[in-house]
Amino acid sequence: MSNDEQAPSASPADPKPVFRLTLRYDGRAYYGWQRHEGKPTVQGALEAAVEDVVGTRCTVRGSSRTDRGAHADGQVAHFAAHLRSPAEDLLHDLNAQLSSELEVLRCEEVAPGFHAQADARAKTYRFEIWNAPECPPARVGLVWHVPGRLDVDAMQAACPVLVGVHDFASFATKTNYNRKSTVRNLMQVELTYEEPLIVLRFRADGFLYKMVRNLVRALVKVGEGRSSRDQLEQILAARDRKSAAGTAPASGLYLESIEYATEQERVAP
User: Fold this and answer.
1) Helix (H) or strand (E) holding 200
2) Residue 187 forms part of a structural domain
3) Do 168 and 247 reside in the same domain of the chain?
4) If pLDDT is split at 50, 70 and 90, which confidence band does 50 have?
5) Distance between CA atoms of 98 and 48, rounded to whole angstroms?
6) Is residue 1 situated within a structural domain?
7) Predicted pLDDT at 175
C-alpha cells in the first residue's frame, strides 16, 4: 500500500493562496506517487502541469504516497501559488495538461495552512480481487487475479478481528521512515462479493507502510484455507511482521477517499 507515515507539521501560514485537488489516477501508468528522477510519477506529472498553468515551480503534496501500480479515486493533494488566470479556470487548465490516466476531479481554494496529509482525519482504501480462473484483459493491472476458489464466507467472518484500535506491527512492512507508533484505529473492514469480484474496504485514522496490502494477503490466506480467524487473532497479537508473511500486489489497491475536519474543508472566501 501507501506510505502513511507520520506527516510533517504544516508549514507556517503562506501568503500565497492554497488549492486542494481531488484526484483520480490509473496507477499502471506511474511509478507511484512520489517524484522519482527519470520515472513517470503522479506527483511529477502534477507538478509539471501546475508549473505550466501558474508559471512557477510548486511542490504538490499528497495525502498518501501510493505505491507503484496502485490507483486512486479520491487522492487529495495541495499546493500554494498565485494564479495567472481566474481560479475557476484551474480545474480545466490542469486537466488540459494531464494525460487521460490522471484527472483532477475537483479543485478548490482552501483555508491557509491546509495540509493534505497532516490534516487528514481518516482514509478509506478499497482492494479488488478477481476470483476466477481467467481474468479479462480489461481488468489486468486493475485487480489482483486469484484463480483458485476462495472461501468468501471464511474471509468475511475473519474481518471483524481487525476492527478497532490495535498495534498493527504484524502488518507493517519495515521502511526507513521513522514512525512514532504502529497503533492505528481501523474503523471499518468490509467485504462485499459479486461473483467473481471480491471487494475489501478499509477505513482508518491512518495506515502503516503497505498495511492494507499485508492485511489483504492475510485475509486471502484465510480464504485459501491456509489460515483461520483464530490464527489471524494470534498474528495481530504477535506484533511481529514475521508472523504474517506475504503482501498482496498493488494492482488491486485504490485510495478511495480522504476525510478532513469540517473547518479544513471550508472554501476560502
Assistant:
1) strand 197-204
2) yes
3) yes
4) very high
5) 9
6) no
7) 54
Contacts 24+ apart (CB under 8 A), 202-205: 202/124, 202/125, 202/126, 202/127, 203/122, 203/123, 203/124, 204/122, 204/123, 205/121, 205/122, 205/123
Full residue range of the structural domain in which residue 209 is found: 122-256
Residue 67 catalytic? Answer: yes
Assigned C-alpha cell, 181: 507508533
In a domain, 7, yes or no: no
| 127 in the same domain as 228 | yes
Q: Which of 4, 67, 93, 119 is catalytic?
A: 67
> What residues does 53 pair with on adjacent strands?
none
- Grid cell, residue 135, equals 481474468
What are the tens digits of pLDDT across the range 198-249? 999 999 999 999 999 999 999 999 999 999 999 999 999 999 999 998 999 9
Of the candidates 76, 62, 61, 78, which has an alpha carbon nearest to the alpha carbon of residue 17? 78
pTM of the model: 0.90
Q: Are 117 and 63 in contact (CB under 8 A)?
A: yes
